[in-house]
Design brief:
The complex is a heterodimer. Chain A is an alpha/beta fold. Chain A has 26 helices and 32 strands. Among the domains of chain A are: 159 residues, FAD/NAD(P)-binding domain; 138 residues, FAD/NAD(P)-binding domain, CATH 3.50.50.60; 240 residues, Alpha-Beta Barrel (TIM Barrel). Chain A has an eight-stranded parallel β-barrel with strand order 22-23-24-25-26-27-28-29, surrounded by four helices. In chain A, helix 11 packs across helix 12 and helix 23 crosses helix 25. By secondary structure, chain B is an alpha/beta fold. An eight-stranded parallel β-sheet of chain B has the order 5-15-14-12-11-8-7-6. The chains are: A alpha/beta, B alpha/beta.
């Protein structure tokens, strides 16, 4: 794949990883539990949503934004996000790590951001090129500092390099990540085979650099503390991993190998041993029970699938020689009473000594930091560099600490978090800021839309194909393959999108999240309950903007209940037949309009639907078919004899004219905007015109919400003249549904014009102030869509009427309505709900 | 034949009679109207802020609605309730500075919250440990497991659960200490035996989400078991009738209420469930019809399935509903004579306290309770594939729902509400929730001010004001 440069910057251009800004103030975003469980705040919901949409490049950006070791993590991250996933309680967590791998496998080698050169004078020395060290190096280099990384071994990567077997993490994957970091950060120089205390001293580093970060990791195995453990056939687990992994050795092992311990090193060691020539049986000996073993679930399951035996409740007491091999003398253990923290102490069962025979023993009971110089300088406390977790500082003001070496054996992602945090405090220190704001993990979102997958509720968790030992185990072939495209999409579709705004204002994502939290708070625990109370007391943001113009949405219907007889819904029918002006009979009170300039095929299709459904047509040119046509024309033009009515377009200013009719039976009306009502209405009444189109569009339906005051004013004027029943009003403007028509009817109209809505149904797309049609529909499809829209609208108008207790839509009246905003109550003259 | 009727006798048919009988014809229900023809494309809903407030008139949601209707030929159906922003309890605020409220671990001992409900006409009232109940939700819309967890939670929190439409389940009756039995127009699952073992009887007239319309349950959720309990055919798109067959008005209703009382020996409170519409008139009728209390459900109330247009456009908001109800009682000099339980978008103890301060006697929570129980508000309840196992009858999905764990969650949510109501009551200087009153409140939007008649005080939108004022 050709080198690609990633277009687009992370959200909020100019944000650096170190300036702590994030999106937690966005009212329509809540950091999902997977994101908050991730020590580096990975925006998992966004990248999952982007994978579903096939936007791999953007998914890559979201994945790598805070994670310089994304390719590595896609295979071996501890994934604390997955137990936190809310779907875990349902039918299994989203496979967030596998999805990361899916993207990184595709793009991991090909995306490189533009190199960043150092711009500042000061420099930082970092001891250790593991996840903590290199993450801090990247952050500082991107901030413009020059960074020198000193690595004891001959290759960078730390525990990722020597500690993880190739069947879980092929070496080229780590190379991919390191390559990407170094290509981007021109200011980082890595010095391999340079150990602190040997090739370079701490004083030298302090002289060379303005700040020093100790990220030495935990590369020394702890002793088991039992007699006989210094036997030649007993090996330290960390050393074992290193010589096989980093050293590339493939020794022949005895038939039976024991691994003592239950953590990550033990799991890697046991599976590695199983693959080496000569080894037939591997047993893992753990002093506590299956409920307590710290091994990661998927590693444990993998080991079991590979036929590794687990011996629980066995505490090593002694190692003795036996039959040319060894015997691990153990005692059984049993759980005691739970202690204060809930954990149970395990005690040995007297008289339960037993031997487990084997050819070699691998000890994997814990790791410690390893550096004699630091011990001499007093910076190491038992097995770690003495570092304050709040500030990442050691006793030496110029020296900082991070990672396993400072805080004990943990995971890659936790080490990266330390790296980010240390880099932040180092930067503050270098800038002379003595009292920096406390570091917190930023939570960002890319605001990706929720996936529209019809199977999202049903898909079970998709697992990667598992290969176990493979055909040639000693070659350490990869144990799992990545997803193919269908599987990745299916897995991505499952995501609940706990971060995303929902469809309802009351149960918005923030409110929903608070309810969820309240459901998990301890009753009566005053501190947390009081904090939640304060959160809930905060006023909500203004959702109904005061300057928002009145619209149909601000009107509600009053249902029949106790005070009106309720209509039964079994028979959904309701009378919709409409007689306009005493001369035009329609099946539904809808006049399709706005198709004079539409493409021929569209116009004909819509006209066909109008004919089939018995609606009317309002337009300048005659529609095809036997349709009641209201001919729209200007004063002075001659009305078409084929038209059922002539509607003279007056617009906003009225001058008297002679309204002609083509025949006795033809009806006549005006189309009027607000300002002209006062003069146009008396004129219409005087000339015995039958119809009036109230034009509430502001020039065009697409210009914005309709002006409902036109309807209010027309009714007021007619009422003032006491001649309300003498002219039929047709509403034109912003009708989006049968409900809008029902409201227009209730407010006093007899029919409504349907313009943009019908255009959308017939295949039009709204672009700015125009409708555009593509050739993507057949004639029949357009007819059917138009017909279906009318049917739906008729059902909606009917339902509104039936809810209010009417069986004829023309019985809807203003008394059936209330408004929900002050603006709407003024614009329509309908009182606010809850008031008279 | 066992009986011939009043004035009839049996005779042999004559030859002439028999010649007229040639063929038999059987007429049955064709079933074409029992199911919706076109399924709706399943889509996750567009977030509300993109189609409300200052968004474009012809926004994405409007276009999607039109498009889908043009493909289906009918109105859209979904779960939940009104999605757009409406005036609500969140638009009123407490005047006093409550920034220090709720920190005392002994808070609950200091505030009296217990209440009885339903003894107006001599029945044995509900005994609630706080003025919060579970709102009626049906077994059908919800799975059996979800209903069960609500029943358990109601017992753990010392309050009452409600069967909703569709009958009483034995396990639900066992699990809940206090169970209100709801009678709907279709009388699905209604019978006198379950009436006898209920703690409350409720006549459902309508609900906030779809007043004027009956219940709706899509075919996928009408399973054999459910159909058996309700007494209907399996697999139809059920439309419950919206009107009781024997109640056509206020005068019929007063007789119905009497019947219920007689059938249960006057032991059990009889309430009415009303969706908010012409609340002023409806409340006066409810008082006249001698109900023990009213459950009043505003436009923000949810449902498992209803036409989207009905959800959004029929009914009045919860805030308007309670105010209208109280105004109605005041108008006829009956303030305090008809307890009102308010529901429809009550999300926490703060909403509850505001409702109580306005004058409601209690509140009920429906949607909030199921969100506490794991609902993720995807609003696809009507489809029946609820991913967490709440709004589904599919056993594969239902088994994802961990009933005991979610019962505890719902219980904890109720307890958080209890804490919040107590903290606010205490913070305002009272020792009993009944002391909460309108004087404690201001309105922060013009709409809320007009609806409630409270002082319009927009400065209370500033969260720091209360701190500065103290």
């Amino acid at each position: 794949m050709a080198d690609k440069t990633l277009a687009g910057t992370p959200p909020g251009s100019g944000w650096s990883p170190l300036d702590l800004r994030d999106d937690t103030d966005d009212l329509h975003f809540v950091p999902a539990p997977c994101q908050t469980a991730c020590p580096i705040g990975t925006d998992a919901p966004s990248y999952i949503g982007l994978i579903w949409e096939g936007r791999q490049l953007e998914a890559f950006e979201a994945i790598t934004a805070t994670n310089p070791f994304s390719s590595v993590c896609g295979r071996v991250c501890d994934a604390p996000c997955e137990p936190a996933c809310r779907r875990a309680d349902s039918d299994g967590p989203i496979a967030i790590r596998n999805l990361k791998r899916y993207v990184m496998d595709e793009l991991g080698t090909s995306i490189h951001l533009d190199p960043v050169q150092p711009t500042r004078d000061k420099s930082v020395g970092i001891v250790g090129s593991g996840p903590a060290g290199l993450t801090a190096a990247q952050d500082l280099a991107l901030a413009g500092y020059k960074v020198d990384v000193y690595e004891k071994f001959d290759r960078p990567g730390g525990v990722m390099q020597w500690g993880i077997p190739a069947f879980r993490l092929p070496p080229r994957i780590l190379d991919e990540d390191i390559d990407r970091i170094l290509k981007r950060c021109a200011g980082i120089t890595v010095h391999t085979s340079t150990a602190l205390g040997e090739q370079v001293s701490l004083d030298e580093l302090k002289a060379r650099h303005d700040a020093v970060l100790l990220a030495i990791g935990a590369a020394r195995g702890k002793p088991m503390g039992v007699p006989g453990e210094d036997h030649a056939l007993v090996e330290d687990g960390v050393g074992f991993l290193r010589r096989i992994n980093a050293g590339g050795e493939r020794p022949t092992l005895p038939e039976t190998v024991l691994v003592v311990g239950g953590g990550d090193v033990a799991m890697d060691a046991c599976r590695m041993a199983k693959r080496l020539p000569g080894c037939k049986k591997v047993k893992v000996v753990y002093r506590r029970g299956p409920g307590e073993i710290p091994a990661r679930k998927d590693e444990l399951e993998g080991a079991i699938k590979e036929d590794i035996e687990f011996i629980y409740h066995a505490q090593p007491a002694e190692i003795v020689e036996k039959d040319g091999g060894l015997a691990l003398r153990c005692v059984k253990t049993e759980p005691g009473e739970p202690e204060e923290d809930g954990r149970r102490a395990f005690r040995a069962v007297t008289g339960s000594e037993h031997d487990i025979d084997c050819g070699m023993i691998i000890a994997a009971v814990g790791q410690t930091g390893d550096c004699d110089e630091l011990c001499e300088r007093g910076l190491i406390n038992t097995d770690r560099v003495n570092t304050d977790f709040e500030s990442m500082r050691t006793e030496d003001p110029q020296v900082f600490g991070a990672g396993d070496g400072a805080f004990g054996g943990s995971t890659i992602v936790v080490a990266m978090h330390h790296g980010h945090k240390a880099a932040y405090y180092i930067k503050q220190y270098l800038e002379g800021n003595e009292a920096p704001l406390p570091y917190r993990t930023p939570y960002r979102t890319r605001r990706v839309e929720v996936a529209q997958d019809i199977m999202w509720e049903k898909y079970p968790r998709q697992e990667q194909a598992f290969h176990g030992l493979g055909a040639k185990p000693a070659d350490f072939p990869e144990i799992e393959s990545k997803y193919d495209r269908e599987t990745a999409i299916a897995e991505a579709a499952r995501c609940f999108r706990c971060d995303a705004e929902t469809g309802t204002a009351d149960y918005s994502v923030r409110n929903r999240e608070d309810i969820f939290l309240m459901a998990r708070m301890q009753p009566g625990e005053a501190k947390s309950q009081a904090a939640m109370l304060q959160k809930r007391l905060r006023p909500r943001e203004i959702l109904i903007a005061p300057e928002q113009p009145a619209s149909f949405d601000d009107i509600v219907f009053l249902p029949a209940n106790l005070s009106r007889l309720v209509i039964d819904p079994y028979r959904e029918a309701c009378r919709t037949d409409t007689e306009l002006g005493g001369g035009i009979a329609l099946q539904h009170p809808y006049l399709v309009t706005g198709f004079d300039d539409a493409p021929d095929e569209v116009r004909r299709a819509v006209a066909r639907a109008v004919q089939k459904t018995g609606c009317g047509w309002l337009g300048r040119t005659r529609p095809e078919g036997d349709i009641s046509w209201l001919h729209l024309l200007k004063p002075g033009e001659a009305p078409d004899a084929n038209a059922a009515a002539a509607i003279y377009e007056i617009g906003g200013s009225f001058t008297a004219f002679e309204p002609e009719r083509a025949s006795e039976s033809q009806l006549v009306g005006l189309s009027v905007q607000g300002p002209a009502l006062a003069t146009a209405i008396p004129f219409a009444l005087e000339n015995r015109l039958e119809l009036m189109v109230l034009d509430g569009t502001r020039g065009s339906e697409l210009a914005g919400p309709p002006d409902l005051t036109v309807l209010r004013d027309a009714i007021r004027i007619l009422r003032g003249l006491n001649r309300e029943e003498e002219i039929d009003l047709i509403w034109h403007g912003g009708v989006r549904s049968g409900t809008d028509v029902a409201k227009a009817l209730a407010l006093g109209g007899m029919a409504a014009a349907v313009g943009v809505s019908m255009a959308i149904a017939a295949g039009g797309t709204v672009s700015g102030s125009a409708i555009a049609y593509a050739g993507d529909r057949t004639f029949e499809e357009r007819v059917s869509a138009a017909e279906y829209l009318i049917q739906s609208m008729a059902a909606e108008t009917s339902i509104m009427a039936r809810c209010t207790g009417k069986t004829n839509i023309h019985n809807l009246e203003p008394e059936d309505l209330k408004t929900i905003t002050v603006a709407a109550s003024e614009a329509t003259g309908i009182p606010l709900a809850g008031t008279r | 034949m066992q009986s011939l009727g009043s004035d009839a006798m049996q005779v042999e048919p004559t030859a002439e009679d028999l010649t007229g009988i040639r063929t038999f014809s059987k007429i049955v229900n064709a079933g074409t109207k029992l199911r919706y023809k076109n399924p709706e494309p399943q889509r996750r809903n567009i977030p509300f802020f993109t189609f409300s407030g200052t968004s474009d008139y012809w926004n994405e949601k409007v276009q999607e609605d039109i498009y889908i209707k043009s493909q289906m030929g009918r109105y859209r159906i979904r779960g939940y309730g009104a999605a757009r922003p409406l005036p609500h309890l969140t638009d009123i605020a407490f005047k006093k500075d409550l920034s220090q409220a709720g920190q005392d671990p002994d808070l609950l001992k200091r505030v009296e919250m217990r209440m009885t409900l339903g003894d107006k006409h001599g029945a044995r009232p509900l005994d609630l440990s706080m003025p919060v109940m579970i709102a009626p939700m049906s077994f059908g819309a919800l799975s059996r497991s979800a209903k069960l967890s609500l029943a358990i939670a109601s017992r753990l929190s010392g309050t009452a659960e409600n069967t909703g439409e569709g009958g009483m389940m034995d396990r639900q009756r066992e699990a809940a200490d206090q169970l209100i039995f709801q009678c709907l127009a279709g009388r699905l699952g209604w019978n006198v035996h379950d009436m006898q073992r209920a703690n409350g009887l409720e006549i459902y007239i309508s609900q906030g989400a779809k007043p004027g319309l009956g219940g709706q349950l899509m075919a996928k959720k009408v399973t054999r078991e459910l159909a058996a309990i309700r007494g209907i055919p399996e697999g139809i798109d059920l439309r419950s009738p919206s009107r009781h067959p024997d109640v056509l008005g206020a005068d019929d209703l007063v007789i119905k209420v009497e019947e219920f009382r007689e059938a249960t020996g006057h032991r059990i409170p009889v309430s009415i469930k009303l969706g908010a519409g012409r609340v002023r008139d409806d409340i006066k009728i409810a008082l006249k019809d001698k109900f023990d209390y009213v459950e009043l459900d505003g436009l923000q109330g949810s449902t498992g399935a209803a036409g989207a247009e009905v959800l959004e456009h029929v009914g009045i908001p919860t805030l308007a509903a309670i105010q209208e109800a109280l105004d109605a009682l005041a108008e006829i000099g009956a303030t305090g004579q008809l307890p009102i339980v308010l529901m429809g978008g009550i999300k926490d103890g703060v909403d509850a306290a505001k409702a109580l301060a306005l004058g409601a006697d209690a509140v009920a929570v429906g949607t909030s309770a199921i969100i506490a129980g794991g609902c993720i508000a995807c609003m696809q309840c009507h489809i029946g594939n609820c991913v967490v196992g709440i709004a589904t009858q599919d056993p594969e999905h239902e088994k994802r729902y961990n009933t005991p764990a979610e019962a505890v969650h719902i219980h904890h949510f109720l307890e958080a509400m209890r804490w919040q109501i107590a903290a606010i009551t205490d913070g305002l200087g009272y020792s009993d929730v009944k002391q909460l009153c309108r004087d404690d409140l201001v309105a922060t939007t013009p709409e809320a001010a007009k609806i409630t008649g409270l002082e319009y005080a927009p400065q209370f939108r500033d969260p720091n004001l209360q701190l500065r004022a103290s």
